[in-house]
Structure formats: structure tokens, C-alpha cells
Amino acid sequence: MHLQPASVILRSVDQPGPETFAENARAALRDTTLTGALRRATDTFAERRAGAIGQVPEWEALRTQAAAIKAHTLARLDHYLEQFATNAERAGVVVHWATDAAEACAIVRRLAADRGARRLVKSKSMATEEIHLNAALAKDGAEPVETDLGEWIIQLAGETPSHIIVPAIHKTKEAIGELFVDKLGIPPSSEPAVLAEHARQRLRAHFADADMGISGVNFGIAATGTILILENEGNARMTTTLPRVHVAVMGIEKVIPRFADLDVFLKLLPRSGTGQHITTYQSLLTGPDPRGQGPSEMHIVLLDNGRSRIAADEVMRQTLACIRCGACLNACPVYQSIGGHAYGSVYPGPIGAILTPQLSGMHSAGTLPFASSLCGACKDVCPVKIDIPSLLLELRQRAVEGTPGHPATRGGFVDRMVWRLWAFCMRGPRRFRVAMALARLGEKLPLLGRLAGPMRAWASTRELPKLAQRSFRSTWRGGTS
Ligand code: SF4
Fold it and tell me: Does the residue 386 lie in any domain?
């Protein structure tokens, strides 16, 4: 086994990168169609999650158990990976070890080229998005067809996913209807059932013709060498069973020790992600089909790409416990406002803000840990109890320490003045009362509003609460006099 640091490019050429996060976020905030679609979708998922976990009295115990399993496994990652690989090979799988994105792509390209496979289908996989596998295969004229409906939509649109489990979350049904008219030549419609039927017909033809299927992996079970893939559309099952060759790309952090551990994760993941009690399909695959009814070849590419370096860092290691449920995205006020593309990485939201800088380096993604209000909503919903706010703070500290003159250490003139004024007003009850009276006056006078230019810029994308016209203190005095 050889696990080494990453050399990863986390974006396609036409996607803005994390280094321009502030600009990307400002552009996203101006797009009211985007912000409306995001708000509706994330609110819906959050409501469904709350309903689903409300029916599981042992929810907190399950979270604790899942966090413990992950912590145990990540502390012995080499051991469990060796065990997984040995058992997978015993079941007939060819296991490949990929140090970085380039090596992983080269392995899959070689597998396709050696077998003359040109018609490829692929099910949803964040690991393959991370390594930009489609672009690599396209160099050989064999770009896979995405078969998850959301992934297929964004592939047609030439975009990247904007959510871990709902890649096309930023698109309205009207926008998808227009895309289908443009790319598929179908009659105009924004009816989801009609659009889904057109997609189904097209994708079925691709499945029937495919020479090779490429998938990701949700969990790899060390004790048996089995992989588990969760999905709702049946496309992953067809991708992994219809073509004669199946290649699964698995991040090394996906390994868990035992089959019995799945019991915990299968209760947590679907409820956290989509609010489902269980996903529609769970495909457990242990080697190629010996009866010759499924693929005759099965390959698993174990992808490091920086993960072994993260696993060696005792503070940041818990980042790798992520089971990619997407709950932290749905709960995050920053993600809810700007969506995934602004992060400039395939991993958006709170998990992206801690994972991307560790995978691609602080030099290119060092702004992302600052893209958080540290409200803690992500930590509250995370099914494996990753302490994302603490990790954000740790990465902020590392970004500042590694960059002399980092903006976070300087603060602008306005920043300093605002904090000094705030400190002055808070030092005495009389000062506080005068400050509040002036603030109330400021709300009424347009002149004062104009004078507060920098504050207005800050407030342009936020809704400031109205000050109560009567303070708590004066109400209290009135009530007791
Ligand atoms: S960090 Fe936690 S909540 Fe966010 S995607 Fe990963 S497992 Fe889900």
C-alpha cells in the first residue's frame, strides 16, 4: 500500500475557483432565481430531515455510535484498507491503489482503453467529480454518460454539481424544461413527470449499449470486501450490473470494519440527507457475478488524493468521517444564500469549507474556512458529529499563521472604528441608552442611513432586524412603576 500527499485540481477550467469565493458569493447573491430555488429546496430537506429523525428516539445514541466507529476506523486506516483489499481480491475484484487524481484517472482510462470500452455509463460519485474523471476520459473520446437524473441535467448544461446529494438543486423545473428543449429537442414542458420520462427513455438506451459502468462507493466493508451503493433511481444498480465491466472509485475513508456497522449508518444517512427512512435501492456488491449474469470484471480504485495526509493529522482527521449526506449544506445559512458553485470546488458548504483547503491546499482555498458565521448549525445536524466549527477555526488559525499580513489579522479601518465605538457604548448603561436612542433615530432618518455607507454595504445582502421602538428597560420600568 502506498498512501501519499495529493496533487489535486478541484475544478474544471471554466468553473471559478475557491480563491475568488467573495466575488462568486456576491454574484450568487444577486441571482434571485438561484437564491429562491436554494431556499425552497434546502428548507424542504431540512423539514423532511426533522420529521424523519423525530421518529427515531435513539437518534443521539446512533450519532455517537457512528462517530465512534469512524474515529476507530480512521485511526487504523491502513489496517482496515489492507483487510478490505485482501477480501475484495479474494472475491474476484481487481484492486488498484491511486495516490492522486492523475493516477486514478490514468487507471480508469487504461481499463477502458485495454478493453476497447467507448460507451461508458456512470452513476453519481463525488470521488469521480473530485478527480475530474469525465474530463480525463473525454481525452480518449469516451466521456461517460451520467445516469443520475440530477447529474445528467448538469452534464447536459455543461455545469458542475452544486450540492453533494442534489447536484441540480440550483435549477428550477422551468430551467430544466428549457434545457431539455435546447439539448434534446423535445416539446416545451416544465412538468417534472414529462421531463423525467424523456430522461428515462434516453438513459435506458445508454445502459443497453454500455461497455463499462463506473460508480462511486458509499461504504466499503473490510471484513468481506463488499461495497455498498445507496441511491433512489435504480441507475446505480443498472450501471453496476448491465455492462460487462464495473469500475468503482472509492475514497479510502469510506472503509468501515464490519457488516454490522452498516446498521448504524443506514439509519443515519438517508434520514439526514433526504429525510427518507431508507433509500430506494441499496446495492451490496462482493466481486463480479459468479453466475455470469452481471459484470464479468469488477475493479475497485482506492483513491487517496490527500486523505492519508489528513488521516495523519489528529486534529483534522475527523473531516474524513463525513458520509456525504449533505445535511450540513441544507442547514448552513451561507450555503442557503449562495449555493454550491460559489465555493469553486466539488465539495461545497460547511464540509467543503473544511475539506477543500485540506485537499487542494490553503494557498488556493484558504478563504473557504472564513465563509462561515460559526453558528454551529452544521455541527448540530451532522450524523457523525463532526465538529465543523472547531475545524473551521483551526483552519483559520493555520491560514493566518501561514500567511504573514493575512487580511484576517489586519482588519480594515472601518472594522477597527466600529469595534471601538461598540466597546465605548457597552461600557456604561447611560452610553448604551444614548447609543440605542441614536440607532432608533438613524432608522428613521435617511440622512443617517446614507452616512452609514460601509454598514449599508454590509447590510445589502442581509436583513437587519428592526429595533424595538420601546426598549426592554423602559417597558420594565413602565410595568413596575
Ligand atoms: S459533514 Fe456531516 S452533515 Fe456534512 S455532509 Fe458530511 S456527514 Fe453530512
Answer: no
Any domain includes 341: no
Angle formed by the axes of helices 262-273 and 32-53, nearest 10°: 140
CA 438 / ligand 1 centre spacing (Å): 44
Ligand 1 probe mutation, 59, 218, 386, 390, most atoms within 8 A of CB:
386
Whether ligand 1 lies within 6 angstroms of the CB of 386 is answered as yes
| Ligand 1 binding pocket includes 268 (Cβ within 6 Å) | no
Tens digits of pLDDT across the chain (481 residues):
444 434 333 444 355 677 788 889 999 999 988 888 899 999 999 999 999 999 999 999 999 999 999 999 999 999 999 999 999 999 999 999 999 999 999 999 999 999 999 999 999 999 999 999 999 999 999 989 999 999 999 999 999 999 999 999 989 999 999 999 999 999 999 999 999 999 999 999 999 999 999 999 999 999 999 999 999 999 999 999 999 999 999 999 999 999 999 999 999 999 999 999 999 999 999 999 888 888 999 999 999 999 999 999 999 999 999 999 999 999 999 999 999 999 999 999 999 999 999 999 988 898 999 999 999 999 999 999 999 999 999 999 998 887 666 666 666 677 778 888 989 999 998 999 888 888 888 777 665 555 555 566 666 666 667 788 788 888 888 765 4
The answer to whether the predicted template modeling score (pTM) of the entire model surpasses 0.90 is no
Q: Which of 63, 384, 385 to mutate to test the pocket of ligand 1 (most atoms within 8 A of CB)?
A: 384
CA dihedral 57, 62, 63, 68 (to 10 degrees): 160
- State in Å: Cα 148 to ligand 1 middle: 21
Does the beta carbon of 328 lie inside 6 Å of ligand 1? yes
Q: Where a domain ends, among 293, 308, 323?
A: 308
Q: CA-to-CA distance for 27 and 202, rounded, in angstroms? A: 34
Cell for 322?
A: 463525513
The verdict on 30 and 170 lying in the same domain is yes
C-alpha of residue 19 to centroid of ligand 1, in Å:
23
- Tell how far the Cα of 53 is from the centroid of ligand 1, in angstroms: 15
Tell me whether residue 177 is in a domain. Answer: yes
**Which of 276, 308, 340 is the endpoint of a domain?**
308
| Overall domain count for the chain | 2
Whole-angstrom distance, CA of residue 167 vs CA of residue 161: 4
